[in-house]
Design goal:
Layout lengths: L2 H17 L5 E7 L10 E4 L4 H11 L11 E5 L2 E2 L4 H8 L7 E7 L10 E6 L6 E6 L6 E5 L3 E6 L4 E7 L5 E6 L5 E6 L4 E5 L4 E2 L11 E6 L12 E6 L4 E5 L4 E6 L6 E6 L4 E6 L3 E6 L5 E6 L5 E6 L2 H6 L12 H13 L5 E5 L4 E4 L9 E3 L6 E6 L5 E6 L3 E6 L4 E6 L5 E6 L5 E6 L4 E5 L4 E6 L6 E6 L6 E5 L4 E5 L1
Parallel strand pairs: 1-5
Antiparallel strand pairs: 1-2, 3-4, 3-5, 6-37, 7-8, 8-9, 9-10, 11-12, 12-13, 13-14, 15-16, 16-17, 17-18, 19-20, 20-21, 21-22, 23-24, 24-25, 25-26, 27-28, 28-29, 29-30, 31-32, 32-33, 33-34, 35-36, 36-37
Amino acid sequence: MSSYKRAKLKAKEEKEKEESPDHYKVVASLVNEEGEETSYNIEIPSDVTPEQLQLLCESVIETNEDEEPTPYSFYVENNEVTKTLYHAIKTAGLSSEDTVKIVYQPQAVFRVRGIAECCGTISGHTDNIVDVQFSPDGQRLATGSGDQTVRFWDMFTATPKKTCKGHKNWVQCVAWSPDGQYVASGSSDTQVRVWNADQASIACKPLKGHKKYVTWISWEPMHCCKHKVANRLVSSSADGTVKVWDVSLGRQTMSLSNHSKPVKCVLWGGGGFIYTASQDTTIKVWRASDGALCRTLKGHAHWVNSLSLNVDSALRMGAFNERGVIEGDVIETSLSRYEKLRGEREVLVSASEDHTLILWHPEEDKKPINRLTGHQRPINFVKFSPDGRWILSCSFDKSAKLWNKKGEYITTFRGHVGPVFRCSWAPDSRLVITGSEDSTLKLWNLKSQRLMKDLPGHEGSVFAIDWAPNGSMVASGGADQKLKLWRH
């Protein structure tokens, strides 16, 4: 046997020896996400698997016998237990003498299948597709483009359905109301227009008031709506103002003006506050009931580009479940979903040109909770996962970074060869997809923390991506003016 073969065989044996766990007992305790111990210290084998930990968890945690068991994922020092507890302990740098805290996190009962191929390329727009968004039930799709139109699409036949004309300049953003009745669009012509989703017709007269282009639109959460109908929305603009509109009245009801530079993003939170991010480096918190400025959040050293709340998915879907069906009373169902996801408080994450993200408790404090550093270039976009446990940030440094909800760094997704513009989460929070200037989409798996699928197909930058709330499909659009639909 040659020396090369002997060395190769020895390396293989050492690797197998390294991967085979030493069988010893571990003193461990089960801990929930808030850090509360739900079991006393117990002695378990080091080679215990996630399936066995699931059984242990079910025996310790009190549940309703009529309910389906909740699936859990398990972590040791932010390292997921994927093979055995031994491997997670080793990765975390712990020894057999340490008391191991096993953090368990509930997972979505339903599971979304990964995206494997493009199932439709649809022409129609004659300029860049800037924004795409599925309806809250996941059955309908709207897009906004530089060709000054908003389009509705038939996803089942992969054909254009309706074209809404009226804007006189680029459509910068589109947003579905949480009851799925309306789509609002904001444009460089300074106007906000609202369309009836079913007929793709004008719902009210153009909402005029901004003096420069509209940058973002956010609807009032469903559980805050009167008469069980979504009628109010808020828009931000490059003129430095934020305006609240009533669709039923067809006019502005409030104007919030305290920023000194363009407002890049606005979110209407579920606790009665509106959050705005500006190029003046600040984030402002406004009371939605009367427009009063509550506090100014300072911490960034450059423009604030993007905001996301840990309750984003609940605010988006309203009373619709993952199958796109409304169960029970609209307000009660929406409120229940929001409160469950919210926990003790809303958490806001902001992304900036200063290469950092900051976590906030905006309802009660103006001090940052945590500053997330690591990106080497400006951060374009940030998004909480649907379960509120993870954060993904997209940057001009050609990477996307994964963080947990406390702001602790988890991993970096590398693979794009151009700036990463957007991301969208699978509804079960197990997968996330990114789009880049390099014309590709990439699908990432949170469990393995690796690239799951490379999805080429676009012929230019990918500016917009959205994963349908029911998990059935992903839509993307960009500089090639083509809308692409992707499914398993």
